[in-house]
Please model this.
Amino acid sequence: MADALSDYESQAAAILPTAVWDFVAGGSGSEITLRLNRMALDAVTLVPRVLTGVDKPDTTAAVLGHEWSSPIAVAPMAYQRLLHAEGELQLAGAAADAGIPYIISTLSSYTLEEIAGAAALSWFQLYWLRDRAMIRSLVDRAGKAGCRALMVTVDVPVMGRRLRDVRNSFALPEDVVAANFVDMVTEAHAPVPGLSAVAAHTASAFEPAVSWRDLEWLRSSTELPLVVKGILDPRDARRAVDAGAAGVVVSNHGGRQLDTAIASIDALGPVVEAVGNDCVVLLDSGIRSGTDVIKAIALGASAVLVGRPLLWALAVEAVDEALDLLRRELRDAMLLAGCADLNAVGELTTGRTPWQISG
Model:
């Protein structure tokens, strides 16, 4: 049992191999952005309303034409069989039970069809590959599997230098594969001293020189709503909308790409202002509690993506419990803030307490 999502982190740390723990927990470079995400979220303050007569807050959210039980989706995360034998299937099933979407990673360790079959509502996350025919195939497969949106990640022209993985010479165990690429020879299983085998694999598979023209091609290649993940600059958010995006995800990849990049929560407001009502805005990176969720909604997001805490819960057989805990925290936070629904959360006044980074 856990009293907070952070409890799963310590529980998982006690049982996972060091290299796997570091692969999930780590950020890029000196991990400054990794720390900034939490510090910036902690610095946001809320001004609650009182005497609103609320006793049962409504947590439901409408996103891209579908109703979610709460404004939370499971973030796309690679190779979940590192944490649990059933990996993505276990977490997708828990998301289905919780009434929230599961976003399938390109680098999932079960096939996207298997995961979509376990999820009630799924999106597919796409990394931009060197092989455009493979992109077409993945997009087509996602549509046929019933995925309701396509989320393209645009902040990984190359994998950020993740020093924990380098120092661990991290490589995937033989039983954990990129299941959507059964015919692809992968370097990810071959450990090399002083290198990350996973980074070597992505360097060979991912196309670094992606442009807005590629995004426009993708928009013209699918009828699925297109969501662009990895937006921090409001100018890029506006351009994504102009290119046909139905949504953007304000994200610094959980501090795993450009180190010293702005905290996602600090980038949220300017992005919301830039796009207005022209697209859905989601927030990713650093969400750890129901209070964090209402901070994001108060600052203009329609919903959030939750990542690492659910992987820790997966490792300790507690994903259903974790999602229920997050839902209860959200409900209690809304009740304490005097909010009957998410519209009321969006009208809350926020403040900011200055923090000084250390460590």
Observations:
- The chain has one domain: 5-336.
- The radius of gyration is 19 Å.
- The chain is about 40% helix and 15% strand.
